[in-house]
């Protein structure tokens, strides 16, 4: 029988209030708070904290605090990654971000959802869904990206967009729900 963490890691429905997962969330929040309080003029400390928090991150990474996540260890960033103020990454499912990506302030990436059935929601069931962001992607401020989304390389996401489905390389998307507004 799988543990709830094993279910989550396998992409299966899991109980979000499981004690092991709650401990993992607490540990992530401690590291995130240390990062959020760390001095901007100590990039080595910040990088060390992100390397402890994330599953993987590049050597050149900068996130403006505050930053929040559920577990941290399901976040994987490439080289030359930048995220502006007040981003939230809910990482029950993996969040993979390529090289040379920029994310605007108040952007939320949700790699988890919940059942439509209210009885299942009351049980605290989470449904992990991978989010993958390609290389050279620019995500404007206030964007929401939902579980299961894959964004190709060289995608630009307009500020305030809600991304509910996947998009190919070399497009500019915007709106709620986001749609292609031009090729680039």
Known CATH architecture: 3 Solenoid
Main sheet properties: 7 strands, mixed
H/E series: HEHHEEEEEEEEEHEEEEEEEEE
List segments where confidence is low: pLDDT < 50 over at least 5 consecutive residues.
none
Q: Largest sheet, order of strands side by side?
A: 2-5-8-13-16-18-19
Please, how many domains?
A: 1
Which of globular, elongated, flat, extended, rod-shaped describes the shape? globular
Q: Which CATH class?
A: Mainly Beta
Number of strands: 19
Task: Say what the CATH topology is.
Answer: UDP N-Acetylglucosamine Acyltransferase, domain 1
On the 0-100 scale, what is the average pLDDT?
Answer: 97
CATH superfamily: Hexapeptide repeat proteins
* Helical content class: 10-25%
Q: Please give the count of helices.
A: 4
Strand proportion: 25-35%
Q: What's the N-to-C terminus distance?
A: 48 Å
Radius of gyration: 16 Å
Question: Which class of secondary structure composition applies to the elements?
Answer: alpha/beta
Helices and strands, with pairings:
Blueprint: H1 4-9, E1 14-15, H2 19-37, H3 43-53, E2 61-63, E3 67-69, E4 75-77, E5 81-83, E6 87-90, E7 95-97, E8 102-103, E9 108-110, E10 112-113, H4 118-122, E11 125-128, E12 131-133, E13 138-139, E14 144-145, E15 150-151, E16 156-157, E17 162-163, E18 171-175, E19 178-183
Parallel strand pairs: 2-5, 3-6, 4-7, 5-8, 6-9, 7-12, 8-13, 9-14, 12-15, 13-16, 14-17, 16-18
Antiparallel strand pairs: 1-11, 10-11, 18-19
Helix pairs in contact: 2-3
């Amino acid at each position: 029988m799988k543990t709830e963490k094993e279910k989550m890691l396998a992409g299966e429905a899991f109980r979000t209030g499981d004690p092991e997962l709650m401990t993992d969330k607490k540990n992530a929040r401690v590291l995130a708070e240390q990062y959020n309080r760390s001095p901007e003029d100590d990039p080595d400390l910040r990088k060390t904290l992100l390397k402890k928090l994330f599953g993987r991150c590049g050597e050149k990474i900068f996130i403006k605090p505050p930053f929040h996540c559920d577990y941290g260890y399901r976040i994987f960033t490439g080289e030359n990654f930048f995220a502006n103020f007040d981003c939230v990454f809910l990482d029950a499912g993996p969040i993979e971000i390529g090289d040379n990506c920029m994310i605007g302030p108040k952007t939320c990436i949700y790699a988890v959802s919940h059942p439509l059935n209210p009885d299942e929601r009351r049980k605290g069931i989470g449904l992990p869904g991978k989010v993958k962001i390609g290389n050279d992607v620019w995500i404007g401020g206030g964007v929401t990206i939902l579980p299961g989304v894959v964004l190709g390389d060289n995608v630009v996401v307009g500020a305030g967009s809600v991304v509910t489905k996947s998009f190919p390389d070399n497009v500019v998307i915007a709106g709620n729900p986001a749609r292609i507004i031009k090729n680039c």
